[in-house]
Design a protein that fits this description.
The longest helix has 26 residues, at 149-174. The chain folds into two domains: 27-167, 3-Layer(aba) Sandwich (Rossmann fold), CATH 3.40.50; 176-288, Rossmann fold. The chain has helices spanning 2-23, 37-47, 73-77, 93-100, 127-144, 149-174, 192-198, 216-228, 244-252, 272-288, and strands at 30-34, 51-55, 81-84, 106-109, 183-186, 201-205, 233-237, 255-259. It has 290 residues and is an alpha/beta fold. Helix content is 47%, strand content 13%. Helix 2 (37-47) packs across helix 5.
């Protein structure tokens, strides 16, 4: 009996200690979950060393709209803030939030109140949407940890300056290209906002933001558009590559510009600033070779 009592005390102590270790494993850090890695990087840059961030989707080639979040319930149950793009992208997010039943979770929907072009959810290459998103993230972090508000503000401003500088440099570099030559066609709509920001006209997009089947009729119309408008460039996503692209290139003679919509699809794009720089430099390089 004495042995059982001692064992019970030891087990209780270990259980208590284990819970204390777990409870303080994030000591001083705000637990944030995002849906995609771009948003995770935004949170990390604004929150600095005061945040612990986890992206639900870690493989950038994942089909976001068709993702099954059933294995992520526990992740959100432990989170304080959940950041997602919202409309037309993570269509499974409401279901996930309902299943996790975390009443204290702050939910940040970055497309809320943001006008989207043709329901295109890839807003993270739109300077205005980026600025709004960083502010939303800063406000959410400040509500959880008001004592760190000045740091969040400084981090956000510094980060915003880096991003704005890349867009400004891109526009300056392309200013020497006649406006009638600044046009492209795209296989997918992941970079539509980037082209708007850089003053490039996207004449046609083969795939919708939902993906799906592409008919021969649509491909023929796409090819005709390229020839009629004398378009020189076709933009291909590192994530969304389809076999028909090669046939289109052979039929029209367009040159390929390859861009990446997410972090870590290609070496060197481990954070958003490097990703944005990679894409803008590829666009500039293509047009300067004209």
């Amino acid at each position: 009996m004495f042995f059982l009592i001692i064992l019970g005390v030891v087990v209780s102590f270990l259980f208590f200690f284990a819970n204390r270790v777990y409870a303080y494993s994030y000591e001083g850090k705000i637990r944030v979950v995002t849906t995609i890695n771009v948003l995770a990087d935004w949170v990390e840059k604004v929150g600095g060393n005061r945040v612990k961030v986890k992206s639900i989707i870690t493989d950038p080639r994942t089909d976001i709209m068709r993702y099954d979040p059933k294995n992520d319930i526990a992740l959100l149950q432990k989170a304080q803030i959940f950041v997602n793009v919202g409309r037309y992208l993570e269509v499974w997010a409401p279901k996930l939030l309902k299943m996790c039943n975390n009443r204290h979770l702050r939910v940040i929907i970055l497309t809320k109140g943001i006008p989207l072009v043709n329901r295109n959810p890839y807003m993270w290459f739109d300077p205005a949407a980026i600025s709004n998103s960083l502010n939303e993230i800063r406000r959410a972090l400040t509500k959880v940890s008001s004592e760190n508000a000045p740091m969040f503000q400084r981090n956000m401003e510094h980060y915003q300056m880096s991003i704005d500088g890349l867009f400004d440099a891109g526009r300056r570099s392309l200013s020497g290209v006649p406006s009638e030559e600044r046009k492209v066609v795209s296989i997918s709509p992941e970079f539509s906002y980037l082209f708007i920001a850089l003053g490039i006209k996207e004449e046609a997009v083969l795939l919708s933001y939902q993906g799906g089947y592409v008919s021969n009729k649509k491909v023929d119309a796409f090819i005709s558009k390229i020839k009629e408008e004398n378009i020189k460039y076709i933009v291909v996503s590192e994530r969304t590559m389809i076999p028909v692209t090669e046939m289109i290139k052979e039929a029209t003679g367009v040159r390929e510009i390859r861009l990446s919509p997410f972090l870590n699809l290609i070496p060197g794009t481990h954070d958003y600033v490097h990703l944005l720089r990679y894409n803008i430099e590829n666009v500039i390089s293509a047009f300067k070779r004209r």
